[in-house]
Each structure stands twice: as structure tokens, then as C-alpha cells.
Specification:
Layout lengths: L7 H16 L5 H12 L1 H9 L3 H31 L7 H24 L3 H18 L1 H16 L7 E4 L2 E8 L3 E5 L5 E5 H4 L4 E3 L5 E10 L5 H14 L10 E7 L4 E10 L3 H19 L15
Antiparallel strand pairs: 1-2, 1-5, 2-3, 3-4, 6-8, 7-8
């Protein structure tokens, strides 16, 4: 299809405007846009459909672009501040989401005011709508309140290993609605903040030291001193077992088929599971070396003639 030539009558006003702009550089950009819009008929078109002039629409568009740029700058500055600052990691996600909601809410108010909408009335309408929405999403608001409570009380932080509601794992993120846990087998668990804020929480990370508690069983035929010596030999040789507080190894109970010996050894928190399993394996090997019998439930039957 061939392009339809533009009539010279239409080009005439535009050419005249361009000549005026070239001759008088002191005219503002707004005046030039108004002259172009009035001469080409675009101003009347926008006024009929939107009630706004073309220059007004362009001004609003420029304002929107500037607002979006400011939002991006603030978000980038916040990310840099959270990364380089000493803000607790647990608060990062919550602060980002809160600031984003606030920025976009202000953006809506600014654009509404620029278009000519009464912001006071808009805020009133939004307040009523917010009340209706809050009644419909009470569960989500309860989760939000629970998240704020967790972030304020700080029973745990990102990176801690916790146990709650029959689940355990490492805290990956404390969000506005859910807390994410990563289990030891790499499963991701979402726990509503309303539940976790009111649940019993066991945090294994705040303290620098933890105590390993174990119970070993030996035969009634083995001397108590020999059993204790075999256990203490393993503890004294292990590099992760702390000497202060002093390890505890004592006879603790007489069972039906064996004697129980309670072992309590302190270690650094990060070495807990390594020491735990090392003691289980190495104490058994030590019992074998010293001739200590690890018994199991059994019954001796004596037959008399």
C-alpha cells in the first residue's frame, strides 16, 4: 500500500510553529507543546476523550517516569544499606516488602493528585476498602502480626537451627506471612507466623557451647572402673571434647539385663553432631579393646532338678 501524502494545509501550521521555535529559543517546552497540540488538533482530541490537554498528559507521564526512577533509586539504596550495614538478616525481607508497599502507595497518591483526583477522598475510600479487606483476610493479618512479633522478640534469626511444632530445620527467611525452614534433608517448610509466634521454640544456636548426653550399657560381669576407663579414654583423646567443664561419666542405673553409664561431654555448638556420632562409634571400639560386653535385653533361665 502506498502512503497517503499529508496535505499542505496540515503541514502549514506545523512548519510555522517550528520556525517560531527556531527564531525564539526563550519559549518554554510547555508552550511549544501547547502550540503543536493546538495546531494539529491533538489537544482537542485529548480534551474530548480524557478532559486533559496533550501537554498535561505529557507532564503526567514525565512525573510518572520520575517517580518510578526515584522508587528504583530508593530500592537500590535500601538493598545496599542492608547488605553493607549491620541490620539483622531476619529483617531484610520484611523491610524490603514494607518499603516497597509504602513507595508504591505514595506513587498512587502522587499520580492521583496530578490527574486531579481529590487525594483526601481517595484516602477515605482506601481506608474503607482497607477495613473491608482486613475483615476478609484476618488470617493473613494474623500472620503479619506474628511476623512482627517474631522480629521484635527475636527468639531466632536467619541461620539458626530451631525445632518447633514437631518440625526442625535451619531458618532461611522470616517473611511477612511465613517463616521458611530448610530441613537436614533439604526440604523447604513454610510455617505461618501466627503459629510460630505462639509455639514453643527450641533454638540450638544462640549459645557457644552444647552438651552431648549419651547412655552406654555394659554387662553386670564387667567392673565399673573398667567401663568408665574405656569411656574416658575415648573422651580424653577426642579433640572436640572440651576439658572445661569436665566430662561426666558415672554409673546411672541398674537395668534388667545391663548397667547404664551416663556420659555428658561439652563441645562447641558447631561440633555437636560430629562429637555425638564419634563417641558412639569410638566407645564401642574401646569396649571391644578392653573386653567390655555391650549387652542387649535377654533372660537367663536356670533349671533345677
Amino acid at each position: 500500500m502506498s502512503a497517503t501524502p499529508i496535505p499542505s494545509e496540515t503541514l502549514g501550521p506545523v512548519t510555522e510553529i517550528l520556525d517560531n521555535v527556531a527564531g525564539d529559543t526563550s519559549d518554554s517546552v510547555t508552550d511549544v507543546l501547547n502550540e503543536v497540540a493546538n495546531s494539529t488538533g491533538l489537544s482537542e482530541l485529548f480534551r474530548n476523550f480524557t478532559g486533559l490537554t496533550l501537554s498535561r498528559v505529557i507532564s503526567i507521564a514525565i512525573l510518572a517516569v520520575c517517580c518510578i526512577l526515584v522508587i528504583k533509586v530508593v530500592q537500590r539504596f535500601l538493598n545496599r544499606l542492608l547488605t553493607r550495614g549491620k541490620v539483622e538478616k531476619s529483617l531484610h525481607s520484611f523491610l524490603r516488602n514494607s518499603v516497597n508497599i509504602l513507595l508504591w502507595f505514595l506513587f498512587v497518591l502522587i499520580m492521583a493528585s496530578a490527574i486531579g483526583i481529590d487525594v483526601t477522598s481517595l484516602v477515605a475510600v482506601l481506608s474503607v476498602a482497607g477495613l473491608a479487606v482486613s475483615l476478609a483476610v484476618q488470617g493473613s493479618l494474623s500472620n503479619l502480626a506474628g511476623g512482627i512479633q517474631v522480629l521484635t522478640a527475636k527468639p531466632f534469626k536467619v541461620g539458626d537451627y530451631i525445632e518447633t511444632n514437631s518440625v526442625s530445620g535451619t531458618v532461611q527467611e522470616i517473611g511477612m506471612a511465613h517463616t521458611k525452614l530448610v530441613t537436614v534433608d533439604n526440604k523447604l517448610i513454610y510455617i505461618p507466623n501466627s503459629e510460630i509466634s505462639g509455639a514453643k521454640i527450641i533454638n540450638y544456636n544462640p549459645e557457644e557451647r552444647r552438651r552431648v548426653d549419651l547412655v552406654f550399657s555394659a554387662s553386670y560381669d564387667d567392673a565399673t572402673e573398667k567401663v568408665i576407663f574405656a569411656i574416658r579414654e575415648v573422651i580424653d583423646a577426642h579433640p572436640m571434647a572440651l576439658k572445661d567443664p569436665e566430662p561426666f561419666v558415672r554409673l546411672s542405673a541398674f537395668q534388667d539385663s545391663c548397667i547404664d553409664y551416663t556420659v555428658r561431654v561439652w563441645c562447641e555448638t558447631g561440633n555437636y553432631w560430629t562429637l555425638y556420632y564419634d563417641l558412639l562409634e569410638q566407645v564401642r571400639a574401646s569396649f571391644d579393646r578392653h573386653g567390655v560386653t555391650m549387652t542387649y535385653p535377654h533372660m537367663n533361665v536356670h533349671i533345677q532338678s
